[in-house]
Automatic annotation (TrEMBL):
Cofactors, names only: Mg(2+)
Statement: the UniProt record of this protein carries the keyword Acyltransferase: no
Species per Swiss-Prot/TrEMBL record: Zymobacter palmae
UniProt KW Transmembrane helix keyword: no
Keyword line: Hydrolase, Magnesium
Gene Ontology molecular-function annotations: hydrolase activity
Domain of life: Bacteria
Pfam families linked to this entry: Hydrolase
Designated name of the protein: Predicted hydrolase
Length: 235
């Protein structure tokens, strides 16, 4: 058999996302505190708890992490006694700064060359539940289609997301001829498997789940070319 298309998760697949979030969380919250001095009343951990609660109460926006932050921040600003239109303006500036920090990522040293090489042979798509817009990053130029869950109104693990991505990559790509690459056991490996695709599961957290047929465990995305060669039966 031959692999005809590849879809990619990005966070913790093409870069280590932990340092990005560790910077982003306190930094944009501190920026807002410098403006409205709210953080003593609503500390950072309370902001994170409220986001969790908001997501659980609003399944319609749960997949859109930026929108969840926007709604919760706006509520916090209003509680501080800030009137409109200033409340919305401050919220939008905090979100703008948060998104700037969100895109300060450092890809794994292998990611650029890997995607450059793969893009010559395969149509490539991004499927992310996160709020990084790959169009804003140099790595994004290697992809033929980019799907952010928030924009689609549906997110992984829905098979619809995977099928939409494959449809965007070509008319004749059946799920079993495509492979999805990602680190989440539930949202990448099992989700792609459930959509009928093969999956390269990047086990960054050393979870060592037992893989069903068609799901292949890798330690790092740099091991992907060897797996593809094996699947393609390349000499
Ligand atoms: Mg990921």
């Amino acid at each position: 058999m031959t692999i005809k298309a590849i879809t990619f998760d990005i966070d913790d697949t093409l870069w280590d996302n932990a340092p990005v979030m560790a910077r982003l969380e306190p930094a944009h919250y501190q920026w807002l505190d410098d403006q409205i001095h709210h953080a003593q009343r609503v500390p950072l951990d309370e902001y994170m708890r409220r986001r969790q609660a908001f997501s659980e109460a609003h399944p319609d926006v749960r997949g859109d992490h930026t929108e969840v932050r926007r709604r919760v921040l706006h509520q916090i600003v209003r509680e501080q006694g800030i009137e409109e239109p200033l409340a919305t303006q401050l919220t939008e500036r905090a979100i703008h700064y948060m998104l700037a920090l969100r895109h300060q990522i450092e890809p794994y040293e292998e990611s650029e060359a890997l995607l450059e090489t793969l893009s010559k042979r395969y149509p490539l798509a991004v499927i992310t539940n996160g709020n990084v817009d790959m169009r804003r990053l140099p790595l994004g130029r290697h992809f033929d289609a980019i799907f952010n869950a928030g924009e689609l109104g549906m997110s992984k693990p829905s098979p619809k997301v995977f099928h939409a991505a494959l449809a965007a990559l070509g008319d004749d790509i059946r799920p079993e001829d495509a492979i999805h690459v990602g680190d989440s056991w539930a949202h990448d490996a099992l989700a792609a498997h459930g959509a009928g695709m093969k999956a390269a599961w990047i086990d960054v957290h050393d979870q060592h789940h037992e893989c069903p047929e068609g799901v292949y465990r890798l330690n790092h995305v740099r091991e992907l070319p060897a797996l593809l060669a094996q699947l393609n039966g390349d000499a």
